[in-house]
Amino acid sequence: MEKNFYITTTAPYVNAEPHIGFAFEIVTADVIARYHHLLGKKVGFNTGTDEHGLKIYQEALAKNVEPQVYVDTNAKKFKDLIPLLNLSVTHFNRTTNPHHIEAAQAFWLRCDKNGDIYKKNYKTKYCVGCELEKTDSDLVNNRCPLHPNRQLEMYEEENYFFRFSRYQKKLLKLYEDNPRYVLPESKYKEIISFVSRGINDFSISRLKSKLPWGVEVPGDNSQVMYVWFDALIYYISSLGWPKDTKQFKAYWPGMQIAGKDNLRQQSAMWQAMLMSAGLPNSTQILINGFISVNGQKMSKSLGNVISPQEMVDRFGVDGTRYLLVNLGPVHEDIDISWDKLVVRYNNGLANGLGNTVARIAKLCQQSGFDFPPDTPPGFRSQVKNHLDDFRFDRALEVIWQTLKDIDQKIEGTKPWQLKGQALKIKLTAWVAHLRQVGYELQPFLPATAQKIIHQFIGPKIESKASLFPRLNP
Ligand SMILES: [Zn+2]
Questions:
Q1: Which of 158, 329, 373, 432 is 20 to 30 A from 299 (CA-CA)?
Q2: What is the domain count for the chain?
Q3: pLDDT-based confidence at 1, cuts 50/70/90?
Q4: pLDDT-based confidence at 137, cuts 50/70/90?
């Protein structure tokens, strides 16, 4: 068995409040982290914030505050997600942490020593919304398709470049050797096709006179690092790299999770950077889909942004977690609305799980029987296989099928007409099923799972307040 397991989310850019798109990514990561913990591994679960770059600098200026004050305020909102969503995060890192800045500079020097950094004059179109260079083929009507309301910036300056082109073959070999390197398969194919077409060296610095808000390039105080170059290094600076070699070796390489707009950065740019620095590549990259609301991308101007806090206020912590990870396959785009969420909550939690648990507890209490404690041995293989495949929707379907089976058997056997041993046999079987359900719900609904485990631990089983109150649409 592998000793440790490390998973990291992307570092969200702190120019906006956390929205449910990132909540979806981080809850997905939490399910994976908790699952590996239950498998007996020591788990490192990293998240944090990306705090440099032009967009943040411009917005701090517009608000007339120091960039550091601006990022401090916003980083806190992301850190607050940890208690809000009951996340088992072990590492929270910010790219303005002094340790991260040192790590980014040490990483730069390694790439430089390996001959992968050079200076050249160049001209490019740049989307501040993405903090990415754009080629004409990326654009629609000469605008970034993800940020059609932003004017593209034109850059012409002398910058440092990273010799990305040098890693084309090595990247293709990495993908070829690891057929599940990027999931889902469609994204794996997409990255292979992107790298196969030929990759260009990319700029990794900016003139400090134009952008003072960044990590200074070692040995050249006229330039700061390009925000992506510094931000990607956060995956390992979180583990204390380069100083804390013990922690780094204990956890790295690890798994990454990212939204589909991050595919190239995570699975190609960052992997080439690791190769250049002589460090092991990430083990796997899970790409998740986007969430839209009523068929439209969430945006402040449309007024359709759903915040994690609003969801928790309405559905509770575990209700929110259930809704986020059970909307469909993690890798697909998902469209939600408040109405749809309420229906799913009522069907799955108030009527489904909550109702079955309440029925069995009541029957057990009325029977007066003892149910000796007995712990499930682990995940059922079907549930485990779906978890290993990151198909949480299917794992939950198996668990919910068990609940449906119990309900059907209650209807079929009419336990209220049974007595003595006949009743005890039935109830004991159903209690065992619910203990299994409680165990398997731990990665998904950690607090609810603990309630079920404690309620059904035995020997006496009693009715308790309902787990999930029914909501009005
Ligand atoms: Zn853009």
A1: 329
A2: 1
A3: very low
A4: confident
383 part of a folded domain: yes
In DSSP notation, 86-150 reads: T----EEEETTSHHHHHHHHHHHHHHHHTT-EEEEEEEEEEETTTTEEE-GGG-BTTB-TT-TTS
CA-nearest of 366, 378, 213 to 387 is 378
In this prediction the pTM is: 0.94
**Does 230 reside within a domain?**
no
Compute, in angstroms, the gap from residue 419 CA to the centroid of ligand 1.
68
397 Cα: distance to centroid of ligand 1 (angstroms): 37
- Range of the structural domain that residue 383 is part of: 338-455
Is 450 a domain residue? yes
- CB neighbours of residue 129 within 10 Å: 17
CA of 129 to the centre of ligand 1 (A): 4
Q: How far apart are CA 16 and CA 179, in angstroms?
A: 36
**52-108 pLDDT per residue, tens:** 999 999 999 999 999 999 999 999 999 999 999 999 999 999 999 999 999 999 999
CATH assignment at residue 426: 1.10.730.10
How remote is the CA of residue 295 from the centroid of ligand 1, in Å? 20
Roughly how many angstroms between the first and final C-alpha of the chain, as a whole number?
47
> How many angstroms does the Cα of residue 16 sit away from the middle of ligand 1?
15
CA of 15 to the centre of ligand 1 (A): 14
Residue at 422 is within a domain = yes
Å from CA of 160 to ligand 1 middle: 22
Could you tell me the distance, in angstroms and rounded to a whole number, from the CA of residue 125 to the centre of ligand 1? 11
Report the separation in Å between the CA atom of 130 and the middle of ligand 1, taken as the mean of its atom positions: 4
How many angstroms does the Cα of residue 281 sit away from the middle of ligand 1? 27
What does the pLDDT look like over 171-186, one tens digit per residue?
A: 999 999 999 999 999 9
- As given in the structure block, the two tokens for residue 321 are 């977690």
Q: Ligand 1 centre from 149 Cα, in Å?
A: 9
